Fold:
Amino acid sequence: MMNSTDSDVLVVGAGFSGLVAALCAAQRGKSVRLLSQGAGTLPISSHCIDLLGYTANNTLIADDPWDALETLPQEHPYRIIGKKNIRLAFSFLKQLSEQHRWPFIPLHPEGKLRNCLLPTIMGTLRPSYFAPSAFALQQLEQAKQVLIAGIQGLYECQPALIATQLRRYSQYSPKEFSEVLLQPPFVSKGASSLSTLDMAHFIDTEKGLRWLIETLQVHVSQDSYQAILLPPICGTKASMDLMERLTGELSCAVVEMLSPPPGVGGLRLRNLLLEAIKPLGIRHVENATVSGAVGEHNTCKALVVSGKDGERYYKARNFIIATGGLLGGGIFTEPGKARESIFHLPLAIPEETEQWSDPAVFGSHLFARMGVMVNNRLNPVNAQGQTLLTNVHFIGRSLGGYDPVTEKSGNGVALASAWYAAQLL
Ligand SMILES: Cc1cc2nc3c(=O)[nH]c(=O)nc-3n(C[C@H](O)[C@H](O)[C@H](O)COP(=O)(O)OP(=O)(O)OC[C@H]3O[C@@H](n4cnc5c(N)ncnc54)[C@H](O)[C@@H]3O)c2cc1C
Structure:
């Protein structure tokens, strides 16, 4: 093979699952190469790691999601990975995040292994399981007086609407909400509105952080708030120092609400993971689109990246495919067909495209469950359950058999499958 490079493990995709898999494989002493086309969905998602928010029949799991894992269908990635391994994967993230001074903790206020309902900037509550301790949810639960702050020009965050909506929930109805729209520190260039990402970049700077502290202090000094709800603007880095200064100078808990993209919290986690892989000698090739594979019998020998200077072959003993779903680029569709994008594995899907979605907008759509079906080593299998590639492991959103959107399990499956794949090497 011309232009070929070799490694123990080749990971494709640098979203949450690819980064975790590369990190875990390198920590196990493997030589790792990471190829990625882009950043995936992590930078636009929130800071939460959902384990399981809804059961298969769409019932909210406000209590212990671990028990509910056993009710999932056999083909669900969690059933394949097993509860013990999922717990180990969460412990791995807890430890890693502690080492990087951005600890993730189970969200439940009493520290129980339960889901917690988090406020969103639409004023709804959404179940999640794991999040950075910097956002003191426990203090929010206990707070009597809460300030909801938005910023003029950040149109998706309307404090008055959020307060009205939150009051409908029994756990929020006894709270006293005050609302404020802060004057923006700058006019956004070219765009008609500010974004949470613009604000987070500004707050990364000393000037920006001082602006946030001083602007909020004006309001906090007038009343004795125990918590402030903010859109996700507290910087793009996983910085406990920033959060300690913010909460210390305001003498008040600060909780970021979850928001639609760009969620910013996911970007902090991505930055943390990129920092963590640096010292491990992982060779990360960015802007590399894997277009095909070279195989022999049931084994992959190399993956192919086509560039301006021709084709490059990346050989390895094991391959971890973390290319995501329809959004990430791991799955492509054409009328009546859906395929995985590197090995062109066909995905089981009805020919009638109308059957791919549920008539109810928030229903469980078949397209959301599309993905590669795997055996208990995460190797791809055909419709008869026969293993297709013995040294290729699929992880994260590229997996089939689950619906991360309706069941709220996206980052949980990504974390658990990535950690598990690395243990199989
Ligand atoms: C807007 C949004 C918000 C979300 N919020 C949450 C949340 O709050 N909590 C939660 O638990 N989950 C959330 N999720 C779900 C969660 O982000 C994903 O399910 C999970 O992170 C999937 O990660 P992944 O690494 O498997 O895939 P992706 O993030 O899609 O990454 C795929 C990677 O593969 C690369 N790639 C694809 N094809 C190729 C190729 N041919 N060659 C090279 N590289 C390639 C892509 O460039 C990318 O780097 C959210 C998802 C979205 C879209």
Q: What stands out?
A: The chain has a mean pLDDT of 92. The longest strand covers residues 310-321. Residues 83-99 form the longest helix (17 residues).
